[in-house]
Each structure stands twice: as structure tokens, then as C-alpha cells.
Amino acid sequence: MKGWLFLVIAIVGEVIATSALKSSEGFTKLAPSAVVIIGYGIAFYFLSLVLKSIPVGVAYAVWSGLGVVIITAIAWLLHGQKLDAWGFVGMGLIIAAFLLARSPSWKSLRRPTPWWRCSAFWISPRTPSSMRAGG
Questions:
Q1: Exposure winner among 77, 81, 113, 126, fewest CB in 10 A?
Q2: Which residues contact 2 (CB under 8 A, 6 or more apart)?
Q3: Residue 128 falls within a domain, yes or no?
Q4: What parts of the sequence cross the membrane (predicted)?
């Protein structure tokens, strides 16, 4: 659960940074440029924490997909960017993909434990001598 909270923080940092890019005017304005650098720093830091508990494919897909949807919504609402019907359909598909990725089935994307890390593979001191090599 903490991984998903960190992912939300990473997305918010990325959205704030990306929104400030236009205002930075090519990094010629100090305040918006600082917002961009700090925002992306927060985004990548928390994304690195997310990867401890969520598979990289799922985390990156959700991070980039929701970032695109939110940035597009901000540009449409605040900056008058045009968005046609197909644009709305595309945004809907990205949201649907997020909902699918967030479903419990994402855990099935984790790799199974390799055989050499399974406790059954290693012989413990309590293993009967008949099961030990040379025993």
C-alpha cells in the first residue's frame, strides 16, 4: 500500500514539474526552473521507492500514463489546449489501463522465487543423513 502512496507522490511531483516547464521559458526564469528541478527530483526519488514494492513495468506504466492524462487535463482546462473526441477516448483508455494495473492481478507479474533461493533446496543440519549427499 505504501508503494501506491509513493507512486501518487511521484506523479504529483512530475505533474508539477511538467506544468512549470512552460513557465520556465527554457530555464531562463529562476523560480519556475527551480520548481521543475525540485519537482522532477521528488518524482524520481519516490519512483525509486515505489520500485521496492511494485514491478517496474506496472509502476512506470501508471506513472507515465496518469502523468499524461493529468498534464493533458491541465493544458485543456487552464491553457485552452484543443482535445478532440479521439483525445478523450485515448485518455479514457489510459485511465482504464491504470485501473487494470491497480487490480490485484498485478501481483501475478512478479517473478517466482528462483529454485536456489527456496528453503527446500538447501539441506539443513536437521536433514536426515539418508537425504544428505554421501550419507
A1: 126
A2: 53
A3: no
A4: 33-51, 58-79, 85-101
Q: Which helix (H) or strand (E) holds 99?
A: helix 85-102
Query: Which segments within the chain are labelled E, that is strand?
Result: none
CB atoms within 10 A of CB 69: 19
**Residues ≥6 apart with Cβ < 8 Å to 33:** 20, 24, 27
Whole-number Å distance between alpha carbons of 99 and 109? 15
Tally of CA atoms within 13 A in the half-sphere of 129 that contains its CB: 2
Domain contains 118: no
Distance CA 1, CA 54 (A): 10
Grid coordinates representing 98? Answer: 491504470
Give the pLDDT confidence of 13-33 residue by residue, as tens digits: 999 999 999 899 999 999 999
Q: Tell whether 112 is covered by a domain.
A: no
- Would you say residue 74 lies in a domain? yes
User: How many domains does one find in the chain?
Assistant: 1
Task: Report yes or no: 46 and 13 within 8 Å, Cβ to Cβ.
Answer: yes
